[in-house]
Write a structure and sequence with these properties.
This protein is α+β, with helices and mostly antiparallel strands. It has one domain: 2-Layer Sandwich (Alpha-Beta Plaits). The chain is 18% helix and 32% strand. It contains two helices and five strands; from the N terminus they run αββαβββ. It has a five-stranded antiparallel sheet with strand order 1-2-5-4-3. About 6% of the residues have low confidence.
Length: 85
């Protein structure tokens, strides 16, 4: 997903919420315009045999994922989430 997102804009972070049954991924772009373009071009499209539901996040996501040992709790929230339909 990161590789495809980088075709749209500069990606600063990709987070997989691996403890969510819906299969949620958050992608953070350096520029907000790239996040909007990604949402507009990816929403309802198929990726890896799954239909994407793409939205812009208005606040920090509250999804479950495995924490890394070196992770800072204050990491910035991601610009949008991708859910399996």
């Amino acid at each position: 997903m990161r590789e495809e997102a980088e075709k749209i804009g500069d990606v600063t972070n990709v987070t997989l919420y691996d403890k969510e049954p819906e299969g949620i991924i958050a992608i953070r772009f350096r520029e907000f315009d790239a996040a909007e373009e990604c949402r507009d071009s990816w929403n309802r499209k198929w990726f890896g045999f799954k239909r994407l539901v793409v939205t812009l996040a208005e606040e920090r996501p509250k999804f479950q994922r495995t924490k890394r040992e070196d992770e800072n709790e204050e990491d910035e929230w991601k610009l949008f989430k991708i859910e399996q339909d």
